[in-house]
Amino acid sequence: MSDTVTLTELQIDLLDVLWERGEASTSQVCEAIEPTRGLALSTVATLLSRLEKKKVVAHRKEGRQYVYWATVSRGDVRRSMVRDLTRSLFGGDPAALVQHLVAAHEVDGGELDRIRALLDEADARQE
């Protein structure tokens, strides 16, 4: 995934449908996000087309419908977006990001324990 791809929350919602299902037609994506987004079919088709231009989805034609699938993994998108966030807001310093989360009380005690365990695992892998 390119470092320059930026995705909106809505675009990620569409990708979530494709990641969960593997592939889906425009109407299936529309139905899946209807309860939370209530978008018209034409809007979903436009959004999927834009995602394809960003090379994060692809499609094939099946009869009169397009069937889409994600060409990037959820993990790739997370890594890219966290990397971009860290660069733009924290000068590329991951420790500054973590420090902000902890100082802003965005992380509770149980999450801190989980983070410590993850850091311990990462340390052990590097030894």
Using brief descriptors, characterize the structure shown.
BlaI_family, Arc Repressor Mutant, subunit A, 127 residues, WH_DNA-bd_sf, 3-stranded antiparallel beta sheet, transcription regulation, 2 domains, 6 helices, Penicillinase repressor fold, 65% helix, mainly alpha
Describe it.
The protein is mainly alpha-helical. It folds into two domains: 9-70, Arc Repressor Mutant, subunit A (Orthogonal Bundle), CATH 1.10.10.10; 74-126, Penicillinase repressor fold (Orthogonal Bundle). It is 65% helix and 11% strand. The chain contains six helices and three strands. It has a three-stranded antiparallel β-sheet. A hairpin with a 2-residue loop joins strand 2 (57-62) and strand 3. Helix 2 (26-37) packs across helix 3. The radius of gyration is 18 Å and the shape is elongated. The model has no long low-confidence stretch (mean pLDDT 91). Pfam families: Penicillinase_R. Keywords: DNA-binding, Transcription, Transcription regulation.
User: Gyration radius, to the nearest Å?
Assistant: 18 Å
Query: In which range does the helix fraction lie?
Result: 55-70%
**Domain module tally:** 2
Q: Supply the helix-strand structural class.
A: mainly alpha
Helix count from the secondary structure assignment = 6
